[in-house]
Amino acid sequence: MKFRNFKMVDYVVYGRGCFAQLDEILAPRRTEGQPMVFLLDHHFEHNEAFKATIPLRGNDELVIADVTHEPKTSYVDEITNMLKSKFGKVSGIIGIGGGSAMDLAKAVAIMMTNEGLAQEYQGYDLVKNKAVYKVGIPTISGTGAEVSRTCVLTGPTKKLGMNSDFTPFDQIVLDPELIKGVPKNQNFYTGMDCYIHCIESLDGTFLNTFSQSYGEKALAMCREVYLEKDQWDEHSDELLMMASYAGGMSIAYSQVGVAHAVSYGLSYLLGTKHGIGNCIVFNHLQEYYPEGVAEFHRMVDKHQIHIPKGVCANLSEEQFDTMIDVSLGMKLLWENALGADWEQKIDRAKLRALYGKL
Ligand code: NAD
Ligand code: ZN
Question: Which regions in the chain score pLDDT beneath 70?
Answer without folding.
Answer: none
